[in-house]
Structure formats: C-alpha cells, structure tokens
Write a structure and sequence with these properties.
Radius of gyration of chain B: 13 Å
Helix content of chain B: 40-55%
Distance between the termini of chain A: 50 Å
Number of strands of chain A: 8
Largest sheet of chain A: 8 strands, antiparallel
Number of helices of chain B: 5
Strand order of the largest sheet of chain B: 2-1-3-4-5
Number of strands of chain B: 5
Strand content of chain A: 25-35%
Oligomer: heterodimer
Strand content of chain B: 15-25%
Chain lengths: 169, 126
C-alpha cells in the first residue's frame, strides 16, 4: 500500500518578517512620530477578514504576491492625521492617500532586503469593515500584529521569493 | 525659488511643501505622475529651481521622468525622493541624471539638508 503524502505545514520564515518589522518601526517613528509595538507573527487563514481599512501593494519580479497593511478605522484616522499633520476623517479624499503612502513606505523599506529585482505596485486602498482580500493560494499569509498608542493595525505578508537576495548587498 | 513636487501622494507633497517652506519663500507646482510633470514643466516659462521626484508613480515613473527631463535640460536640480533603497536603483537614478537621492521615510531635517546640499553644490559649480 503506497504511503500517503501530505503537504508540509506552512511555516513562518523569519527572513521575510524581520525587514517588515524594522520598516514598520522606522516609518512610524520617523514620519508619524509614534512608537510601534510588534507582537508575535502568526499565520492567517485564507480567506479571512482584515480590519476596516487596508492598503494593498503587489510584488513582481524576484518576489511575487502581495502585502496588505490593515488598520482599525479609529487607528487609521489617528495615524493618517498624525502623518499628514492635520486632521483627516475616514473616507475624506486625503484619507486613502495617506494610508496608501504609509503602506508604500513600509513595503518599500522592506523590499530592498527581499530581492534585487523586485518591483512593487502603487498602493490600492480598500475601505469597509470585515472586507476579505483574496491572495495567492499557494503562499501562506503571515500576519504581524502591531500596536501603537492610537490603536492596532496589522501587516499581512503573502509573498514568495523566486530568487534569493544577493548575499553581498 | 520655484519648486516642482512630483509624487502620486498628495499627503507626501504636502509634507515636502512644509519642509521646503522653512527655507524661505517658495512658489510650488505639483504633479501626480511623470506625464503630468512633463506637462507642467512645458507650460512653465523659466522652469524650476528644484524638482523633487518620486520613483513609483502611475502612468510614468520617476526614473523615466528624469531621463525625459535630462534629454533637454541638464541644469535643473533633480532630487529623487523614494522608498526605492536598493543600491542598483540609486545607481540607475544617478546615471539617469538626478543630483541627489533621498530615501523615504525621511525626517524633515534630513530632507532639508539634502536639498540645501544639492543647491549649494550646484551653485558652487556654476
């Protein structure tokens, strides 16, 4: 009787996580003026709802997949306002712009550690509670929960490296 | 001083404005992508004293914009302000003709210092 083969359980690759953790801390302390506490990363079921406001950035080239930065509504309003230097309400024209640019800096900051020829898309922003984002089915989604004095957000990483980054970089 | 800010994020352009305004009176123009920037440049007699350019933008990216500007204009100070931090990207931007390179995220002081450095270096070379 042939042995049953089962796919290995997905695991969390620290080399993918660390660049995002460092980038989150750098972006929020430099551009928003808040310190971020990062909690233990975990795998996310696919599909499963995100928070109320999500910015999605796609990868292509050496790295494929997407990264989502998802915020609770109140957190998003506070962080977007602090970033812009003036109050911004949920749904205002500058709200999605600010949230998208924060995600752009987080993902862009992490990208240089992931692959020399990786390119990222401009951010798209989704507004709406409990929205569900469809991702690549063969790539696990790792969630990094983050806490600021203004509330919670999460970085959801669903990418795979096709070419390892150069050791000499 | 006349400055053109090219970035698809209005929030980022506003942040850059606040930083540059600390240098003194500045007349600003803005563009959300490379194509719009070319149109603004073409319709601005006398040109600009400084152009800040993001890399990742829709329609035309910042790298292509720099190449297009440098086809006709070798003199205007161009600074790339971007999240693109890989060494090769910096080299590509310098080859295309930027005078300086600022990686996001930046502090107001670091952006200001890089702008002043760029302008004074070009003034000394003139």
């Amino acid at each position: 009787m042939p042995a049953t083969q089962t796919a290995p359980a997905p695991s969390i690759n620290p080399q993918l996580i660390v660049p995002f953790v460092n980038s989150v801390r750098s972006v929020f302390s430099t551009m928003v003026g808040v310190e971020t506490t990062v909690q233990r990363p975990h795998l996310k079921a696919n599909p499963a709802p995100s928070y109320d406001v999500s910015s999605i950035i796609g990868f292509s080239g050496d790295v494929v997949g997407s990264v989502v930065v998802s915020f609770q509504r109140a957190t998003a309003e506070k962080l977007a306002s602090a970033f812009a230097g003036s109050p911004i309400e949920f749904g205002a024209p500058d709200f999605a712009d600010a949230i998208g640019e924060l995600a752009n800096m987080i993902v862009g900051g992490a990208k240089k550690h992931l692959g020399n020829m990786a390119t990222i898309t401009v951010p798209s922003v989704i507004l709406g509670s409990a929205h569900v984002i469809a991702r690549l089915t063969d790539v696990p989604c790792v969630v990094i929960p983050c806490q600021t004095p203004g509330g919670s957000f999460a970085v959801e990483i669903s990418i795979k490296q096709l070419t390892p980054p150069e050791a000499t970089r | 001083m006349k400055a053109l800010l090219v970035d698809d994020s209005r929030t980022m352009r506003n942040i850059q404005k606040k930083v540059l305004e600390t240098m003194g009176p500045v007349e600003f123009a803005e563009a959300g992508d490379g194509l719009e920037a070319l149109s603004v440049i073409a319709s601005t007699p006398g040109g600009f004293n400084l152009i800040l350019i993001d890399w990742n933008m829709p329609n035309m990216d910042g790298h292509t914009l720099v190449q297009r500007i440098r086809e006709k204009d070798k003199a205007t100070p161009l600074i790339m302000v971007t999240t693109e931090a890989e060494k090769q990207r910096v080299i590509d931007a310098l080859k295309a003709g930027v005078n300086n390179y600022v990686i996001k995220p930046f502090t107001p002081d670091s952006l200001l210092e890089r702008v002043k450095q760029t302008l004074s270096k070009l003034k000394a070379a003139a």
